[in-house]
Amino acid sequence: MPRRLVRSICLQLLLESREEGILSVSLDGTIEIWSQKAERFYGYTAQEIMGQPLSRLVPLHEWPGAEEHLLRSGRE
Description:
Layout: H1 3-15, E1 23-25, E2 31-34, H2 36-42, H3 46-49, H4 63-75
Antiparallel strand pairs: 1-2
């Protein structure tokens, strides 16, 4: 089985997990992946939140630290 297909299947199974709320964010802070548990936890559907900035979810007082983490990840 091609590695890409295995990765895709694993990602799909992980996102369908009822145990974990999972989201993926690009280095510019855009939400790219949103699991069903994240929908229940945050109250946004995937359609509503994907493509939106992570700053919609992070409390204002915590945003500087989250933003620094994204910037640092982009440099590594």
